[in-house]
Write a structure and sequence with these properties.
alpha+beta; 3-stranded antiparallel beta sheet; 42% helix; metal-binding; calcium ion binding; hydrolase
Length: 553
């Protein structure tokens, strides 16, 4: 059906057909009626993008969010078919935590503030619960290799008898959050342990430059030797790139680019990425996993747009075939893999569409967003939220709505159709904040999303890091001052100064050995390289094409 133009109320409206379903290997196709009905798309005159789709995405969020609050809180997740809740990753209201910054992106500041207070008053992490280290991103790095266990008890630590076998992503997905935590707290230990874990994986790669899927964190031996870009490995590569951008760390980017060469040499075929044996490079699984759909977005962050678009279009053909991405897709057969036919409303392909649309403006990427809204609403929407699609062949549903639906899927969809959102700031606007230690720049753009789509402002991170180090210097000076004051108290009068305190001129008397130890400890903490807050050249580059270290201009 050709498109038709209408002009109601000053809006440019287009009647567009949705894509038809592609046949399966037996020549049959799933009923495509749910996603090929033509829809009326009205363009926002200010942005030129479909305004009504953005509002539908917002409505999707609140249908799921309100259902969680009414039926599932304080449990981790909503069960949409039975309208109740259950705990999954740690029993700390995970869906509410995951949805928090989506509220801000949708512009609901008052609800954001209310939820922050609710979480502060009600969430307790000192509980006797076994939690995934990857999913909760908290502790457990005390191993001979420096690579963390996969599971930890939040109250007691690592349980006796806990398996030392951990997936690669579970080891290499900490640098973004832990470096941020070090900046906010002034304690470098978080970033240090995350860097050690990254380096141990780097040192464990095979002679042909690949890493496997699971490794023993006590011995450093690979247990699962399948190499690819999908489940079990994915966010390790993601965090090398995002950690490099966030921390302006060329070493992390160089590590990723070396991996990228090996991945292209051994796993890349016809713009698909297969699974291979990490030591030999021979194909072990000719499948596409839905979790791999983040890869085109990651390629866009290093400026590899052409390859990213070709791979994205391959993945999009799978979406059009089923109205969603099955967990596993057999590439030679062109169909789902048995027992992996489901789609739990994952965000990865939508995430890549958002990044690539920011880089290219290609309308094909908006088509994916539109198709995603149609499919999810028609197949997955139920009275109490949105349900996981258990089988894309017949659209049977499962009684689960994972927290990433609100944290990632809806967020990336909304940002795809909201080009003026503050997240997309290219550095042209910012907030200058005056602090006791000087001026800081905040909100200048270049936000880094962690693997659960929670944005981190790099300007705030570097500003906080600078302030913490200056604070350490002030604390050291104050200790010296009070030590001096105690030693001379019987000979000096106390005076008050109307201005800020300044250290006494001339050589300082020696302080106690305890103070020397503290000063050495603080000095050690100050070895982290600093960036000047007002100078943020990386923000506009990231927002435009992501060519952070490859751009020679």
């Amino acid at each position: 059906m050709p498109f038709r133009l209408l002009v109601p109320f000053g809006l440019l409206c287009v009647l567009l057909p949705l894509h038809h379903g592609a046949p399966g290997p037996d020549g049959t196709a799933p009923d495509p009626a749910h996603y090929r009905t033509p829809i009326l798309t009205c363009l926002d005159p200010a942005t030129g993008l479909p305004a009504e789709i953005r509002e539908r995405v917002k409505a999707m969020f609140y249908h799921a969010y309100d259902s969680y609050l009414e039926n599932a809180f304080p449990y981790d997740e909503l069960r949409p078919l039975t309208c109740d809740g259950h705990d999954t990753w740690g029993s700390f209201s995970l869906t509410l935590i995951d949805a928090l910054d989506t509220l801000l992106i949708l512009g609901n500041v008052s609800e954001f503030q209310r939820v922050v207070e609710v979480l502060q008053d009600n969430v307790d992490f000192d509980i006797d619960v076994n939690a995934s280290v990857f999913e909760t991103n908290i502790r457990a790095f005390q191993t001979p290799t420096g690579m963390p266990y996969g599971t930890v008890n939040l109250l007691h630590g690592v349980n006796p008898g806990e398996t030392p076998v951990t997936c690669t992503a579970g080891i290499g997905t900490f640098i973004v959050e832990f470096a941020t935590l070090s900046s906010l707290t002034g304690d470098p230990v978080f970033e240090e342990v995350a860097r050690v874990a990254l380096m141990r994986l780097w040192e464990s790669r095979s002679d042909i430059g690949l890493v496997g899927n699971h490794i023993d964190v006590l011995t450093g031996k690979w247990v699962a030797q399948d190499a690819g870009i999908g489940a079990g490995v994915d966010s390790y590569f993601e965090y090398l790139v995002k950690g490099a951008i966030l921390l302006q760390d060329k070493k992390l980017m160089a590590m990723f680019l070396e991996y990228n060469k090996a991945i292209r040499n051994y796993t890349h075929f016809d713009d698909w990425y297969l699974w291979v044996q990490m030591y030999k490079g021979t194909v072990s699984m000719p499948v596409f996993q839905s979790l791999e759909a983040y890869w085109p977005g990651l390629q866009s962050l290093i400026g590899d747009i052409d390859n990213a678009m070709r791979t994205f279009l391959n993945y999009y053909t799978v979406w059009k075939q089923f109205g969603g991405l099955p967990e596993f897709y057999n590439i030679p057969q062109g169909y789902t893999v048995e027992k992996r036919e489901g789609y739990p409303l994952r965000p990865e392909l939508i995430e890549s569409a958002m990044y690539l649309y920011r880089a290219t403006g290609d309308p094909t990427l908006l088509e994916l967003g539109r198709d995603a809204v149609e499919s999810i609403e028609k197949i997955s929407k139920v009275e109490c939220g949105f349900a996981t699609i258990k089988d894309l062949r017949d659209h049977k549903l499962d009684n689960r709505m994972e927290s990433f639906f609100l944290a990632e899927t809806v967020k990336y969809l909304y940002l795809l159709f909201d080009p003026t959102n503050f997240i997309h700031n290219n550095g042209s606007t910012f907030d200058a904040v005056i602090t006791p230690y000087g001026e800081c720049i905040l909100g200048a753009g270049g936000y880094i999303f962690n693997t659960e789509a929670h944005p981190i402002d790099p300007a705030a991170l570097h500003c906080c890091r600078r302030l913490k180090e200056e604070q350490w210097e002030v604390e050291d000076l104050m200790r010296e001052f009070y030590s001096l004051k105690r030693n001379r108290s019987r000979f000096q009068k106390k005076t008050m100064s109307s201005g800020p305190w300044e250290p006494p001129a001339g050589p300082e008397p020696p302080s106690s050995p305890e103070n020397h130890d503290q000063a050495r400890e603080k000095s050690a903490k100050q070895k982290i390289p600093l960036l000047s807050c007002p100078s943020q050249p990386f923000t506009s580059k990231l927002a435009l094409l992501g060519q952070v270290f490859l751009d020679s201009s």
